[in-house]
Specification:
heterodimer; A: 284 residues; alpha+beta; 5 helices; rod-shaped; B: 108 residues; alpha/beta; three-stranded parallel sheet; 3 strands
């Protein structure tokens, strides 16, 4: 009984051990399968990661290639930009030069315009003087010379009030011709007398600084060979004559000598004509 | 007289008349490019001559520059009403006269 009991116990024990072992083996197997599944999962994940990394690496290669291309492009563009900036600076310098040249040309043009205007004015003044001189010497008629003086006074000086006198001094002056004024009254005015006396003594014309509506404008001595032979007194100027210009002074100076010479020549011519007439009468 | 001498100095070909009536006749006959007319003239004054020139088909297009000693507004207005194109007052400013003449002759 004991042996049988021992056998049963042994069998039971073996059975139990086997059961336990089996159980442990199953447990171990389950763990191993789990591990295997985990590893498989990890392998798959690693493979996917590897694949993704590979794709990324390819992309990186593409990007790096693109980057290289862009770097090259950038370098080329920088070079172009540098060249453009250099050209732009060159253009700026050229534009500055052109602007300066234009400014100089404009200044030069302005200077030429002013010179041209000045020459035109001088030409006009010379024409006036020529015309006045020509008019005075265009006649030997004693009555025509005062008319020429009047024309010059009206047309070139701008006065319709003047008197022409003959004589060497204030005391001996006698009216030769007059327009718009009474020659005797003119000589009574003390400002006229003073200025006329001074003009006759000095041989220099006196000319007012500016036109005055109620006073004397000029006292012009008529001189031949440095000697007083008469005078012209110019009273008021025409209303529209606003100022006395340098050309007026030149006209007065011209009258001082050329009017006197014209009168002198006209007198000589009249005397010569009379003398010739007398000789002709005597010869008959 | 003075205007004639000045313009001659600037090499213009001139025809002169001694009064307004002669000026009208000569203008019709000669048809000048420009007429320079004194206001004060014997027989026919400048205004009347200007009016007749303006009425005459042969001369109505010829510009007339009036030369006057008096530059009053009334005078100027009358001149323009009668057909004058421009005014020059005495004393003659040669440069002004020449500039106006050149302008009407199309030289500027």
């Amino acid at each position: 009984m004991k042996e049988r009991g021992d056998g049963d116990s042994y069998i039971r024990r073996v059975h139990e051990d086997t059961q336990r072992y089996t159980h442990e083996m199953l447990e171990e197997n389950r763990k191993l399968r789990l591990l295997a599944a985990t590893l498989e999962s990890q392998r798959r994940g690693a493979a996917e990661t590897l694949a993704a990394a590979s794709i990324k690496l390819q992309r990186i290669d593409v990007i790096e290639a693109e980057l290289d291309r862009l770097r090259n492009d950038s370098a080329r563009l920088e070079q172009i930009a540098d060249e453009a900036v250099a050209k732009l600076r060159q253009r700026d310098r050229e534009a500055d030069d052109l602007a300066r040249q234009l400014q100089e040309a404009e200044a030069e043009s302005q200077r030429h315009l002013e010179e041209f205007a000045s020459f035109e004015q001088q030409n006009a003044n010379l024409a006036n003087l020529y015309v006045a001189s020509f008019r005075l010497h265009s006649t030997l008629d004693r009555d025509e010379v005062p008319a020429a003086i009047q024309e010059i006074a009206i047309n070139l000086i701008g006065s319709e009030e003047l008197a022409v006198y003959e004589g060497e001094s204030l005391q001996t002056l006698r009216p030769l011709a007059w327009f718009g004024v009474d020659p005797a009254s003119v000589l009574l005015a003390s400002p006229v007398r003073e200025r006329l006396e001074r003009a006759l003594a000095s041989g220099q014309a006196w000319v007012a600084d500016a036109p005055s509506p109620d006073s004397i404008t000029a006292c012009v001595p008529l001189t031949v060979a440095g000697r007083a032979a008469g005078a012209i007194v110019v009273m008021r100027l025409l209303e529209q004559k606003r100022s006395i210009e340098p050309i007026d002074h030149e006209l007065f100076d011209l009258l001082a000598t050329h009017a006197a010479t014209a009168l002198y020549c006209a007198n000589l011519h009249a005397e010569a004509t009379n003398a010739c007439g007398a000789i002709a009468v005597e010869a008959r | 007289m003075m205007e004639r001498m000045i313009l001659q100095k600037f090499s213009y070909e001139l025809i002169t008349a001694h009064d307004g009536a002669e000026a009208v006749d000569k203008a019709i006959a000669e048809k000048p490019d420009l007429i320079l007319m004194d206001v004060v003239m014997p027989r026919m004054d400048g205004f009347e001559a200007c009016r007749r020139l303006n009425q005459e088909p042969a001369t109505s297009a010829i510009p007339v520059i009036m030369v006057t000693t008096r530059g009053e507004a009334k005078n100027v207005e009358t001149g323009f009403e009668l057909g004058c194109s421009e005014y020059v007052t005495k004393p003659i400013n040669t440069l002004e006269l020449i500039t106006k003449v050149r302008s009407y002759l199309g030289e500027t």
